Fold Magnesium transporter MgtE.
Amino acid sequence: MYKDMTENQILLLVIKNLKELRKKEFQLLIDELQPYDIANVYKNLPEKHRHKFLTYLTAQQIASLIQELESELQIEIIHKLGIERSSNIMNLMENDDLADLLGNLEVEQIQDFLSTMTADESRTVQSLMKYESDTAGGIMTNRFVWIPKIYTVRDAVDKLKTFAGFAENIYYLYVIDEDKKLVGVVSYRDLLLGDMNDKIEDIMYNRVISVPADLDQEEVARTIERYDFIAVPVTDEENRLLGIVTVDDILDVLIEEANEDIEKLSATGKSIDFQTSALVASYRRLPWLILLLFIGIMSGSIISAFEGTIERVVALTYFMPMIAGMTGNTGTQSLAVVVRGLVSQDIDKYTITRLIGRELGVGIIIGATCGLLIALVAFIWKGSLTLGLVVGSSLFLTLIIGTLAGTLIPLLLYRLKVDPAVASGPLITTINDIFSLLVYFGTASLFIHQLL
Amino acid sequence: MYKDMTENQILLLVIKNLKELRKKEFQLLIDELQPYDIANVYKNLPEKHRHKFLTYLTAQQIASLIQELESELQIEIIHKLGIERSSNIMNLMENDDLADLLGNLEVEQIQDFLSTMTADESRTVQSLMKYESDTAGGIMTNRFVWIPKIYTVRDAVDKLKTFAGFAENIYYLYVIDEDKKLVGVVSYRDLLLGDMNDKIEDIMYNRVISVPADLDQEEVARTIERYDFIAVPVTDEENRLLGIVTVDDILDVLIEEANEDIEKLSATGKSIDFQTSALVASYRRLPWLILLLFIGIMSGSIISAFEGTIERVVALTYFMPMIAGMTGNTGTQSLAVVVRGLVSQDIDKYTITRLIGRELGVGIIIGATCGLLIALVAFIWKGSLTLGLVVGSSLFLTLIIGTLAGTLIPLLLYRLKVDPAVASGPLITTINDIFSLLVYFGTASLFIHQLL
């Protein structure tokens, strides 16, 4: 009955139910909503209704609501609920989300919460909190189902039934041996097709793909993407099963990593979104800009070195911004190709040599085309064949240099184990400014007598 | 037993088995591999072994192998197998992958293949081929399980068993009414916890989230990501169920879309990777570069208009590339923030007004900081307070303009329903070059008498 209602209609109905104290109608409505939708209702709910809203929800519903919210609102809810009710709800949360939430609280508060949890739960959450948040350990959950390899299909189905309400992922069952080592995996599909008396050991898949707990989340994403998995198990050095990473968390990882690449490529600085204040955004953007400012001053000293040339042929300055700009542009293009390529490719010497050769080829083709065009324009505009030749051949050279700089700098950083995306577009552009000015005025100085 | 072998060891063992005609050992090994790994073996296999390799695989194995390969290798296999065996294999492929594969063949070949398929299969594949490849219809599969709402849990489990080997996703069952309209969804979890005699109608979830067939794949990805789904159903205008989109395809969509954003932001042109030839890469990169070249020439004519000013104060040229560069850099930063923000945010008037205000604030803060710094540098370097003031105040103004241009241009494009990422970094940089030259020389001309 609520199927075709818009978000706003739902919000209004929720407020109506809250005002008229109709808890039953309220629950009927909430029951039909997804956690994401409930979170949206909460976000748009006027402050004065939020407390009542929370008292009308079940603990399980609050747990899934919290998991959909940003940390600010999560903490608001924790405060509204008080420590006791919050603890009950934390017991119902996925452990990976819970570890993240606790990570945002103050140390004292964390202690308070951990002390109210069951010993088991508290130990688990603490162990999850010790992994870096961008590793397999940091994004794994331990709400999964494992079975000993001596189980039959019937045993497995029984265990699955008990855990279906609790586990985040019930599509794969991980099989362990006496030493708790991961030895196999069985999918729900296998159970469905197997005979009730089949031994798990006989129907399980042996070559389990797993990831170590300290693996970078980007690598975990790559594994799941390659194998089209819904989840991947996480193990310690001894191949003991620690948890699983599910595909829904991987979707978030992919979005986060792409955003990070773009932030670095544009030298934007960390996580600026539409909500960031002007002061914070400026503070994050300024370090790069100031660095680039000082590199930019170097271009000034190059020009001052060629002051004599410029004073004699002022027309040279006309093409200066264009040449510097074009060199920066090709550099940015090459940079983007290399940075994105490094994300999805395995890199060996052969690949790199071929890539550099290819970009050299691109530089020559692009340089020749644009050089010829600008030579023609300069010749027609200023009527000087020499000026055309100087501008054209400079652009030819600088475009080759720009392309190579955009290729070599990120590769070098990659080799030095620095994230190649640090070589942002603005940095490449600024460095290329300097190269291009040197080449341009150098060439012009060679032909200064013909230019006069 | 093959669990701890490296990729190379597996490859060598495969070749050994092929050479010694040990089909049984070959199958034992292949059985333990994932489709992705089998595809890797095939890619690295010397050409002379490939034909035998294919004859040793079962039709089902070839079907999953093909799905992991790029279209070039797919077509190679089709040719190696001949039309009859290929058709058998195509019948076993996921329909969305098959539609993509056929889309890469020539029309005649497509006709040949379609004619060898069962009428049902051929009709389905043809209907899949009619959707744009970047829409829900283009990435959906029709290997899913649907049940009528009058079924009991027992009926559903029986149907699931029959289809478990065939369906791409057996974790959700979609429920339809007499008119084939989508009315609910039941998860494997619900079946597991339900009683065998429960009616599906009573335990199903009514508020099914579905997407229309012509929805952009990026929007489909957003839906799956928001709701943490493993699959989402695709419906026509009448709410009839057409297919499902699974999360593994969404991972590919996210990677593809992030790459596209970066390509556009860096004006790289479509899909250049490490394998693209220099000629093709140049061809894809040149259109933007040539456009930027001509915009760059405009900056030349601006400078020529201020020739008199430059001739009198050559030192002005020292700061020209730095000012143009810095304006471009802030513009690129703002652009990246806006473009990425537009991907993940819902946009309304309020958000936009606030964003523009925020960026204006950022421009003022950044402009004041950098302007002050460069004024000091210019004053100390050239000993002229006026020059310091001209350079500093110009940078202050151009950084504000640059920030706003980097914000307003993508927003304007978004408003005009053009992809905002088209306003690439290089384009913003080039446009900002022009703004900055006008401001810089304009300011300088105002103070020309003090500068002399």
Q: What stands out?
A: Chain B touches chain A through 119 residues (CB under 8 Å). The mean pLDDT of chain B is 84.
